[in-house]
Write a structure and sequence with these properties.
- The complex is a heterotrimer of chains A (255), B (293) and C (356).
- Chain A is built from ten helices and ten strands.
- By secondary structure, chain A is an alpha/beta fold.
- In chain A, 49% of the residues are buried.
- In chain A, strands 6-7-8-3-9-10 form a six-stranded mixed β-sheet, sandwiched between helices. A four-stranded antiparallel β-sheet of chain A has the order 2-1-4-5, covered by helices on one side.
- Chain B has twelve helices and two strands; from the N terminus they run H-H-H-H-E-E-H-H-H-H-H-H-H-H.
- By secondary structure, chain B is mainly α.
- Chain C has a single domain, classed as ABC transporter involved in vitamin B12 uptake, BtuC.
- The chains are: A alpha/beta (255), B mainly alpha (293), C mainly alpha (356).
- Chains in contact: A-B, A-C, B-C.
Amino acid sequence: MTAALMVRDVSLSFLGVRALTSLSFSVAQGEICALIGPNGAGKSSLLNVINGVYRADSGDILIDDQLFSHPTPARAAKIGIGRTFQNNALFRRMSVIDNVLTGLTRQGKAGFLELAFRLGRYSTEQRIERAQAEDILAFLDISAHRDAIVGQLPYGLQKRVELARALVALPKLLLLDEPMAGMNKNEKAELSQFISDVNRQLGTTIVLIEHDIGVVMGLSHHVVVLDYGRKVGDGTPEEVRRNPDVIAAYLGTRH
Amino acid sequence: MLFLVNIIVAGLLAGLMYALVAIGFVLIYKASGVFNFAQGAMVLLSALTFVTLNEHGLPFWLCFIITVGVLIVASVLIEFLVLRPLVNRSPDTLFMATLGLSFVIEGLAQLVLGTDVHQLDLGIPDVPLKLYGLQVSDFDLFTAAVSILLVAVLALLFGKTRVGISLRAVADNTLAAQSIGIRLPHIWRIVWSVAGVVALIAGLLWGNRQGVQFSLSLVVLKAMPVLIIGGFSSIPGAIVGGLIVGATENLADIYIGPLVHGAVSDWFAYILATAFLLIRPNGLFGEKPIQRV
Amino acid sequence: MSASKLAGTAHLGGTVSQAPRLSGRRVAILVALILIYGVIPIVGNDYWLNSLIIPTIVMGLAGLGLNLLMGYAGLISLGSAAFMATGAFATFNLLLRLPILPLPVVLILAGLIAGLGGLIFGLPSLRIRGFYLSAPTLAAQFFLTWLFQTYHWFSNNSMSLVISAPRLEFFGYDLSSSRGRYLLVALTAGLLLLLAFAIIKSRIGRDWMAIRDMEVAASVTGVPIARRKLQAYVVSSFFLGVAGALWAFAYLGTADSNTFSLDKSFQVLFIVLIGGSASLLGNFVGAAFIVLTPIVLDILVPVLGLDTYIDQGSIANIEPIIFGALIIFLLIKEPDGLASLFSRTIRALSIWPLRR
């Protein structure tokens, strides 16, 4: 079985401060893998390394067993890595549908003149991308807000719009950075259901950061625990729960 | 060889004048993260106020005090009318607002004080002396001394006093500074006032050399490349940036100018700054921000 | 809806066919078209056309050019006039040196040459952003105007360095009357407005706004940042170049390097800020404001009896105060500009009779 994602010996530091230290783990195809650990453990930094926002000091990222060399956000998007951010990274002054449509921008083939003068491939592409965006809006149940300006929507809906933008291009690998932060119990249950649907029905491999242990245990197949940039646990939710190092490093500090 | 040295020295001296203007920008940038386009207008306003009072026969020290008073009033008004309503808006919005502000200040200053060119004589001869073969005037030496003194005073002010420490806290982390009880509007008013005094000193020195007139407000444009090279958040950077711009501009005029049949000093500094940005986006002394996402 | 249907993508949604009907919007566009291309050329006298309408349209077009760059793509420029100058000098030289080319072709080529200039000075935007972009754009402003002034070839070695259009005609139809120049300006602006609209509504405009709102997120989402930024510079400079040519030859008649000084760049910037960033029609509102203010001031000051206090020279100082204060006010209260203020008012007024 190929690994959808393999992190191999990755280290990262900021101005001499270690954020990640020789970190290695792999995520199987079709898995939901949760990254957990206390604040500052390096979880978001790791996602940023995987999709090229940060450049690792050393180590490799492999996607589908292929070395992902010289990662940049643009290359990551191209090879099918979708991403949401911890604090919403939406285009605040644009409508919901326009936000989602940007997720499809790189699949377009029409050139500048075709787009500017509405010639050639313009209308076909336009129709197809509209339909794809509408489908994803319906799937995440936000069609009613299609034309709303994103910055004016409540937080929970914004989170869903961001998920829609990441999903619309049907990525192979989806990185979710605290998708449920700031949500109430019902909203969390609802979004968990969406994430699980995406995973089962589209076969998308998902790596997510989440603090709510209940959500993590219910949703994920695989848990990786980080503490101070090092891996302290890796296994099924059940294994991780029993791991004494994890209890000391993570659960211990919380309770 | 002496010719080359003289060109460089003349350039460095001109650069010191740029640096004086640039220091005012750095103060405000550190306190509020704003590139204050209106700093050039403040230079014009202060020089114009001073020279008008002086022409009415007031003694030098009184003109200075009254002008400083005018600048403090202006700073309080700016904080209240422009900065406070725009708090937490994007740096680009604030930049545009200071651009609007510069037009208001220039217009008001000239409406009230007139558009005539005023001569300003600080009583320091600006005739080149021969010092070991170097062409340097008393005025040049005076400018250099004032710059050094100003940097020393600012270093003391911001290193040792309460206000200075608060300012550094604000520059470091605005939210944290507010949460420990530092009042942002208060800091802004003080910093803008200090920047006003710096503008006054720059205005007097520039005004002495080229007359007090509208073109003084254009020194703001030369401060831009100076700050880009030195880094927006560093006073030593502003000085070094000023010296680099002054010296290279002068060298370019002498050595590149004849090759292209024209004075290149109109644009040389901007091209230099652009090239610099591509190599060192944070300037020589600027801190590299860690991008958080 | 289930995700299996999603994966199958049978795509029928989103294509609601609409029978053509006379909506309020269509009527408004129709009335505007009749007014602009039918009524104004007939009833407009020379003073109105020359002093008010032509400069408003041309400066509005320039504002549109900068707005595409700044309002949509979020890239600051203080050097708009440099690209207007490039368009003007290119038009002059093309008309002079390639007399077989018809005027529309010349204007398009001049716009493309200005676009090339925009491409070159836009390159630094791939590494820097925000107000740091004032450095390369000021470099463009001072370098390009210096270039046209220093190398006399650009003004065909005329002693005064002034350029004037050798001919303003289209297929034998003379456009040098004020009506002819108005039609040239109005048609060019109309076509370019359509082009801008199409670009904004396409993937390109969406990507520009995404870069403006959050560049990191845009790159993670897959927006080709470098290509879109450079496209923004080229398109913006194309519009500015055409506007510069019209300003020089359809409005002023003659021009030189000083016509396109830094002051002109600031005027264009003000038009964008007053008209509203990320708006197309707002630029013409902003331009009207810039063109009308000095005229209104000239009339108002004597009427209000202020001329005893304010001499003619001082009136020129009131203008920057008004523009500057208005910009600050709009940034604080109405970031979408005067146009949005107007359209809200108009919408309120147009709903009002229906309420009864």
